User: Fold LacI family transcriptional regulator from Cohnella terricola.
Amino acid sequence: MTNRKEVAKLAGVSEATVSRVLNGIGPIKESTRQRVQEAARQLNYELNAVASSFARGRSGNLGVVVPHVPKVHLFSTYYFSELLGGIGDAVHAKGYGLLLLFRDPSVTYDYVSLYRTQRVDACIILGSSAIPSETEAIVRLAEEDLPYCVMDQRFDHPRLNIVAADHERGSYDAVKHLIGQGCRRIGFLNGAPQYSNSWDRMTGYRKALIEAGIEPDESLIYEGNYSRTSGRMAASSVYANLERLDAIFVGNDRMAIGLMQGLRELGCRMPEDLKIFAYDNSDAASFTEPPLSTVKVPFYEMGRLAADRLLDLLANKDQGNPVINEKLLTDLVIRRSTGS
Amino acid sequence: MTNRKEVAKLAGVSEATVSRVLNGIGPIKESTRQRVQEAARQLNYELNAVASSFARGRSGNLGVVVPHVPKVHLFSTYYFSELLGGIGDAVHAKGYGLLLLFRDPSVTYDYVSLYRTQRVDACIILGSSAIPSETEAIVRLAEEDLPYCVMDQRFDHPRLNIVAADHERGSYDAVKHLIGQGCRRIGFLNGAPQYSNSWDRMTGYRKALIEAGIEPDESLIYEGNYSRTSGRMAASSVYANLERLDAIFVGNDRMAIGLMQGLRELGCRMPEDLKIFAYDNSDAASFTEPPLSTVKVPFYEMGRLAADRLLDLLANKDQGNPVINEKLLTDLVIRRSTGS
Assistant:
């Protein structure tokens, strides 16, 4: 039986190029593509991706597990779309496929079976949380030494593969900026507590206050679930405390946008009556009125880094699976929602 | 060798449930999952997805081909993220995987090889255009009777599989609304001409003007490329004609947002000096100041419909591949950018 090596030799290209042409993975120069196809025809060689993957024990796909929540348009959220963009670019550059797998967040997901059934060679887990059954499922991936990476979620367990952003530092910086603007009474609209993100933001928020000699006031801390609706719903409680607030720090832009809409309807002027500092630096943060000061999170770079690290591991299997543990820094973007 | 049927019988579930559990496709009740895994263990049965797909000649994946453009964060565009959301929900409901495939838009893509190499069972093509080599590649899919669907792009060829929106009608409705508001001198910032979308919008724009007895004025027609930057770049030309314009119709929200930013910097007040009607009804359209009147396109529903139709075809192969030809209607969403 003809093999890939012979096709590569006849076409005068590398074996990788033969695979790329016959698997339809671009970009390939048109002339190269024709030469490879002609060589494959002459040698009566047709690559069957599934058959050859089976022989190699590889699928050629990087899996990306995302939560499936009915009615939530996941890809329209900045967080997921930017992470996926970074992962997609890495996958494109290395000729892999990106297999999106949807999970029901209320059900324990059996990550290991994705590998056992050879649907993926490695996987990235988005929207993970710290509930015990999820932690257990992730730990099992580590114990079986499978190539995986959890995105932006910490666990109470050493040596798990994680690429994250430094949300404690980002939050600390944001609150410190507000204090520098003369704010003393700073509220916090946080997201849901099952994400380590939310805890890290709380830690950063408290640290900045305490460092400035300000006692954190529990009655000024609110909880939403990172959706715009939850921000809007918080508006009446925030408005009721308006006399006791100089500013509010909000866990993401979506909640901040909802909160601003709700507050505006109640007659609150921003930043005059209340300064707002948001989080993410999504596109929308620059479109709002006033535009939002916000913590810029390098989601795209995080996705790209996680995928690059995993695909490198796959290419260098003899080096084992060293632990991936990366924490990227955030930046402040200052706009009119915090004053001048 | 043990087969799936025996596992299903021992576990007291359907064969489909066995596949779902062993392929890690949720949602599955925890107790069911454990029962199936226990049965598989007892019978020494382990499903190898690739091996079994090979036997069936199926990958279990729906392919989605998307253009890869460096530095453009594709998933952050409303158009792609909503289409993908609809496709993702259909795929999730039917237990398929969604294989994202990135193509270089400047290179002819060999769609047929995706099937030959069994990477996908069917595919949806996003961001297609009417250039001749692309048309040829799509026609080849039709000639080989492969299950595929092109999203929101028409070709000069009968009987190709397409799910689209009625952009001629959407544009006609938008311009007619402006005329109803007393506008006579209505400009048009259109997108790039390789998309049938752009031509359809032009047809609708002209039709509404001519029907109202207004001669279309070529000097008030501008061209961008659907990016925010291209909208911003058009601002100075539009501003130069401000005295001759009552309103401008813009081919998508992103360009409209860029145009508004550019015009505001030049001192133009909207809607007082110029009314703006945009297109898409992305999230951002409601955040801008003023919020944008816009044509609402059911992208999510279009993606869902295309995927559902293809997955139905796969499930009923004996019925052949009837032509898919759907055109969904748009709606007008009226906000402050067009006046009251």
In short: The longest helix of chain A spans residues 299-315.
